[in-house]
Write a structure and sequence with these properties.
46% strand; disordered N terminus; mainly beta; ten-stranded antiparallel beta sheet; eight-stranded antiparallel beta sheet; 0% helix; Jelly Rolls
Length: 309
Amino acid sequence: MSAEPPQLPQISADGRYYWDGTHWVPTASPGQLPAPPAFYAPYIEPQRRGVPNAVVITVGVVVALLLTTMAGGLAVYVNHLRSGSAVGSATGSPTPNGLGPARLSAGSGIVVFTDDFHDPSSGWFAGTTSSGTTYGYSGGAYAIDGHGFLTHYVLSPYSVPLPQASATTTATQTSDAPLGAGFGVVCQQGTGQQMISYWLYISVGAVFHVSVVKGPDGPNNLPLSIKRGTSGAGPGSIPVTVVGDCLTAADGKSTRLVLFANGVKVADVTDQSTVPGFGWQMGILAPSQASRSSTVTYTRFEERDLSNS
């Protein structure tokens, strides 16, 4: 017999809270998480308050990039450090059986939310953080102008959690963006010690990244690399579409993570981590570097329910 899928929590009428069995818990509350692949010495911006239906996270790091000459070009290899000098890594494995279809595509699932950012009241955060990073609607698009060794992310206005979710974003990045800058999607669920976040994104140099952050936000809770490699498509003036899937097993003890760049699957791995069972909230993210600010301009966002894929 197969296990029953996890039940979705009761959601408040305004979509901003869910019932955890004892209390009403915000579905999207301000917080911070550490930043992109790098050597870490975190800086955390003060939390913003009163952000409706979205979370803006900016956490900094000191970055050292190791450039290796390969096939006449440069490939970027970045080490993740945790707790000072230890190299952090999460357990990744090939696509497992039982976590969605083997031939999962970039367009799988039922669309539950879509936004082309032409409506400036569609619910994404707009404002400026203490680093000088700005977020907002502009000319029928949504832009994050990132400053510092920071990762910036915003959760989608669609706040109903999904156990098996997919997010798609199409974006461009300033042509002079430095190595390490990029964009992609994030999936997150839980609070406090039960919080878990996955980052699926591409960076300058056509490098893909799949990372995880477990536990509460804070300067000592750093992301772990699950997988990275060549994506075949990198951020720049030509639009790139990134799709990130997070599919949690029925027992809640593992999550399949799938990343597509321009429709091509570049990563399909599993993280063996227990999740709270409330379901994923999806969003967009944009790592930046201190050497030079860079702007990511998003022209499309779409969220899908993969439960019946």
